[in-house]
Amino acid sequence: MQIIHTVAELKTALGNASQTAFVPTMGNLHDGHIALVRQAKNTGGPVVASIFVNPLQFGLGEDFERYPRTLAADAEKLADAGCDLVFAPDVAEMYPEPQTFQVQPPLADVLCGAFRPGHFTGVCTVVLKLFGMVRPRQAMFGKKDYQQWYLIRAMVRQFNLPVEILGGETIRAVDGLALSSRNAYLSEQERKQAPGLYDELKRICAALAAGDEDFAGLEIAAINSLTKAGWRVDYISIRTQATLMPATPGDRHLVVLGAAWLGKTRLIDNREVSI
Amino acid sequence: MQIIHTVAELKTALGNASQTAFVPTMGNLHDGHIALVRQAKNTGGPVVASIFVNPLQFGLGEDFERYPRTLAADAEKLADAGCDLVFAPDVAEMYPEPQTFQVQPPLADVLCGAFRPGHFTGVCTVVLKLFGMVRPRQAMFGKKDYQQWYLIRAMVRQFNLPVEILGGETIRAVDGLALSSRNAYLSEQERKQAPGLYDELKRICAALAAGDEDFAGLEIAAINSLTKAGWRVDYISIRTQATLMPATPGDRHLVVLGAAWLGKTRLIDNREVSI
Q1: What is the CATH number of the domain that holds B108?
Q2: Domain termination residue (choose one: A142, A168, A194)
């Protein structure tokens, strides 16, 4: 497996490859990422993973500085999973000049976007750049970051980008906690509490499946329950899968999304439900 | 020469072509466009031209509705110039859903951008889409639209788009008027006056070449001269080629840009000068 740090070397290594499957990551890889790499491997083309902690998608006061960087361990896991090439640029390589061109996505100020101004502009911009560098036929994104997954698919559709987006199902610990690089921030006590967020999402999904259409009531009950348990909730929201707009009675294909803090750690999760 | 109206047919026609040279246009083709097609032909790859009057780059009250549409005549000229494929989608084909993803470029509120809010967002967005559809190796843009040419190159660089941008020199009538589809709007009397804009740009370039560094003075003199001759001037501006920011004494590679109205017709032009 090749590890490459510059755009020029990447271009040389890829040549005219047109069947590449691409897994963009911020590193600190867990089984969720590795599942995406295996999915990429199944496409039959060469597999490229990128590792880049993108400053453009972190806000002031967020965890850009302390975000875990573990290139050596990541490379080992990627090689084991059959990855062919790792692209790990530094910030100056990715942004050799101030990034004055940006992608302005819709829905950038709802859900996580409401709490992380500029986040999805940064995500979409770096993904567009990575697509230009790697020119993949397919790219894999985890559905744990549901709003990101939604926006990347919408960006590809609306910008007519010549790439197919595939989603990877969320991988969970045995107690239900969605795997995330940020889980490493949790204290032992917080880690025990952490599955509580997904428990609430499951509870809402069960109620929806049973015909409850009091969306606001379900959201508020979950927020109250989490708050009582010591969480600080950013949002719990029942939305439609097709538009990511708030669900209204009669909608069939829903997704329940949540973001909440345990101490200094912000966790997100979601669950799809069709009724 | 094939004429194609849908993205699906375009995809089929292009297959895996990777050497395409692309000339995006709004149609109503003149010798400036045809020179770009011949330049594309020289690259050796298949030549694709697009014809699409892009509503996204027209402001309220601008000339989107009356912009000349002359597909049959355009197709004939393109065939004569050796174009292999014309892509002429309608608005619904280009924007099958509201275009909520946009490219936000820099310098969008200076020069023409100051007088045409949203124009360069619309230009960059449609060009990004067309690049995704056509996947060209090279794309040609006329330098008459200098700010556009500058921004497209910057967008390609900053988004790492896998395409090379080539510029075509401005083609002029014998009296110096830059060819433009909008020249068709001019009355006989206005057409006679129209070379006056370029005359002023040439006068400024001559002064710059002679060592004059009173940029503001040169700009104001040109504005006054044009105004006296019956023009309504949007701007006359001396800028650096490298940044498109206002020139300061000591800068060597300059470009003088102008935009001004004759009656209901807005004309733009520019001239590069190195001192």
Answers
A1: 3.40.50.620
A2: A168
Task: State the Cα–Cα distance between residues A9 and A61, nearest whole angstrom.
Answer: 34
Residue A129: which of B101, B125, B159 has the nearest Cβ?
B159
Would the pTM of this model clear 0.90, i.e. be above it?
yes
Instruction: Give dist(CA B176, CA A91) in Å, integer.
Output: 47
Is B129 within 8 Å of A159 when comparing Cβ atoms? yes
* pLDDT tens-digit map of B132-156: 999 999 999 999 999 999 999 999 9
**Could you say which of A146, A168, A190 is where a domain stops?**
A168
Instruction: Decide if A15 touches B, using CB distance below 8 A.
Output: no
Which amino acid would we find at residue B275? I
Residue B175 in any domain: the answer is no
Task: Please check whether residue B219 is in contact with residue B194, taking contact to mean a CB–CB distance below 8 angstroms.
Answer: no
What pLDDT digit, counting tens, does each position of B60-114 carry?
999 999 999 999 999 999 999 999 999 999 999 999 999 999 999 999 999 999 9
Which candidate in B10, B104, B160, B245 is best for mutational testing of the A interface (most A CBs within 10 A)?
A: B160
The domain that contains A261 carries what CATH number? 3.30.1300.10
Distance from CA of A264 to the nearest CA of B (A): 33
- The span from the CA of B155 to the CA of B8, in Å, is 26
Q: Is A157 on the interface with B (CB under 8 A)?
A: yes
Predicted ipTM > 0.95: yes
Q: Which of A100, A132, A160 lies at the smallest CB-CB distance from B133?
A: A160
- Mean pLDDT taken over chain A: 97
Judgement on whether residues A229 and A111 belong to the same structural domain of the protein = no
- Asked whether the beta carbons of B192 and B174 are under 8 A apart, the reply is no
Give residue A138's pLDDT. 98
Element (H, E) at A51: strand A47-51
Which candidate from B101, B132, B160 shows the least CB-CB separation from A103?
A: B101
Query: Where are the alpha helices (H) located in B71-118, listed in sequence order?
Result: 71-80, 91-94, 112-115
Domain span at B200 = 181-270
**Looking at B114-195, which runs of residues are DSSP E strands?**
138-142, 164-168
Gap between the terminal Cα atoms of chain B: 45
Closest-CA residue of chain A to B133? A160
